[in-house]
Amino acid sequence: MAKFEDLTSEEFTPARPELQAGLTEAIPEGEIPSRYINRYHADHDVPCAFCNKHTDHRRGFTVQMKDGRIALCGRDCAKFYFGPEVARDFEKKLKEEEDRRATASVIARAMRGVPQALESITDNWIANERAMREVVSSLAELVGRASRVPEVTSGGHLELREMRRRFVEREVGGVVRRVPVDEEVTLVRARHAGALLRQSEKEALQGARDCLSKLVGARAPENLSMLALKRIGEVRTSGLSRLRDGVEFLDLCSRFFTKENIASFSDLVWRLGVASNVALHRRKYGYELVVVSHEVKTSYKLPSLDDRPTERSISLLLRS
Ligand SMILES: [Zn+2]
Questions:
Q1: How many Å lie between the centroid of ligand 1 and the Cα of residue 301?
Q2: Which of 92, 111, 165, 198 qualifies as a FRET site for 38, CA 20 to 30 Å off?
Q3: Together in a domain, 91 and 172
Q4: CA of 23 to the centre of ligand 1 (A)
Q5: Distance of CA 86 from the midpoint of ligand 1 (Å)
Q6: For residue 201, is pLDDT > 60?
């Protein structure tokens, strides 16, 4: 089995294969190479070392003989002299190696951003997310107690709608009559309630940090197998997706937790038949959310969500 560790070395340019050091100009007829080193697509004609006429060509392979000589071989000659199966097999292995190297270089670039991305996901933000998850789940639980289920709009608002009947005058066959018209009206709307609907992903920022931490200790991608590279790629993707979840959750929270909106939310749950009252109060330290339900008062200090991290700023560090 051929080894490919020195394939496509950095000096090698597929457009200028003749610049590789130590090329043998002519290989005697009948000798076949033991491995292919790289393939090229030259931007000008280069001579083939294998055929008698040393045919000029642009697409071909750099090959190595058993004794170490290396030479250029046109693609057609490779098939002709070494047999189509050998040529196909070499080409397949080269393709795999090229893919592996391309993936390794993408992963390597992404991994360089990991330490900075990790620094951006601070303990403070992880604690803020945890605090907000607790508050949000208790509000979601209030909604869950209702006998009616509010509508969720495409914009992520919670609405309570009702059919209303009114009468309008219409002329029917020359006679003016009062006819009923039914229409749905929105009684109350709690805006940006998406955070309440997003209960599955727990503490996404912590998850993102755990994923990214795994990448810090990973070996240099250049030396890893395709399988190992794919695993690293998956960890990175998973980290990015949790990061996005966490940041979106905090974004939704910052829009949901306004005084007016919480008043609407309180109205909504009341109309849904949940005997409770929810209010947001401004305090010296920031905001406090007070939930009174069956005369039990629970209050939550809300962390400040100003200057929260943006998904874009962190994920940019992890893109190649
Ligand atoms: Zn040739």
A1: 78
A2: 111
A3: no
A4: 15
A5: 16
A6: no
